[in-house]
Recover the amino acids of this structure.
């Protein structure tokens, strides 16, 4: 008797999943704004997720993204942040397929008996757009913000913004007397991997900045793109992608235990840190992978964590060496 009940439960769950999927697709449309409101706001999405990068806004905050002729604004439950469109130097749109409802979706599949959850993963997914906005602050420092949007909205957002590309200049050397002790400049991530989404590149940079600022002992500086601006950091960190494998969360989830080996997302980076004299402090290769059913983009924070850990370890060694030399 238990097997028929399980079958009924599985069928009911499947019907519920299809209904929710249809609802999610319906909710992904751009809100129906009145003509006056649209002219005033330009473009908006009420189903945006701020992944990382907007000043004063928490990561993974749900909210509304609005683009007017002058500004881009994200408003979440706890905070709001605005940047001037003239500060935007690059834009890109991309997408990836992810499991519906995230953790809730995985828990739903786990409730399916006889290992049927893996089969559900073959249709419990949807396209998620990624809008990447690269901009500079008032001091010429480089920033990158990434937003998740419902399918096909990222391209609509692009049509409402015209970037203002800047010319990158060599930063003049800083006099020794002005070098800021225990400060580190993080250069933009470079990549020759054509299949690596811009959103991944930008998020690696922002995650490294975020983790460095959480660690004690370093003053963290962003890459400088303003003409004539000097950088007086004691150290400079450079990251370069040497390999990237996009993988697939959907494939990992739908293949059960085999998904731990198939559809893996991987990033390999060259990590280099030099001092103000150009002496190499760190030269290493780091790599991270995302296996199992979690989102592929989780690999980004993993690789950033490794980079910051290596720097923190080296920084501690240098500080200990300085103390020994003073005895």
């Amino acid at each position: 008797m238990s097997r028929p009940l399980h079958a009924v439960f599985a069928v009911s769950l499947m019907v519920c999943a299809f209904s929710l999927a249809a609802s999610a697709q319906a909710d992904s449309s751009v809100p129906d704004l009145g003509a006056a409101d649209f002219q005033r706001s330009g473009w908006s999405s009420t189903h945006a997720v701020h992944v990382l990068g907007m000043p004063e806004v928490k990561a993974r905050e749900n909210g509304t993204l609005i683009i007017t002729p002058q500004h881009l604004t994200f408003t979440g439950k706890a905070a709001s942040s605005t940047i001037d469109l003239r500060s935007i130097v690059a834009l890109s749109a991309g997408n990836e397929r992810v499991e519906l409802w995230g953790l809730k979706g995985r828990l739903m599949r786990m409730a399916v008996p006889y290992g049927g959850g893996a089969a559900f993963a073959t249709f419990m997914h949807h396209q998620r757009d990624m809008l990447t906005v690269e901009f500079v602050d008032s001091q010429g420092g480089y920033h990158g913000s990434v937003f998740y949007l419902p399918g096909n909205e990222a391209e609509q957002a692009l049509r409402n913004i015209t970037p203002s590309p800047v010319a990158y200049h060599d930063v003049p050397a800083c006099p020794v007397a002005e070098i800021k002790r225990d400060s580190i400049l993080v250069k933009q991530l470079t990549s020759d991997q054509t299949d690596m989404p811009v959103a991944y590149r930008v998020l690696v940079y922002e995650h490294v900045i975020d983790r460095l600022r959480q660690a004690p002992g370093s003053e963290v500086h962003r890459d400088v793109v303003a003409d004539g601006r000097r950088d007086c950091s004691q150290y400079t960190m450079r990251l370069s992608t040497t390999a990237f494998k996009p993988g697939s969360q959907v494939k990992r989830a739908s293949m059960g235990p085999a998904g731990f080996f198939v559809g893996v997302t991987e990033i390999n980076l060259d990590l280099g840190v030099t001092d103000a004299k150009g002496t190499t402090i760190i030269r290493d290769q780091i790599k991270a992978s995302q296996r199992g059913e979690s989102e592929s983009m989780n690999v980004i924070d993993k690789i950033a964590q490794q980079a910051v850990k290596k720097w923190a370890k080296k920084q501690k060694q240098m500080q200990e060496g300085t103390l020994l030399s003073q005895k």
Notes: The helical segments are 2-27, 35-41, 102-110, 117-120, 153-158, 198-214, 249-254, 298-326. The longest helix spans residues 298-326. Confidence is low (pLDDT under 50) at residues 1-39, 105-125.
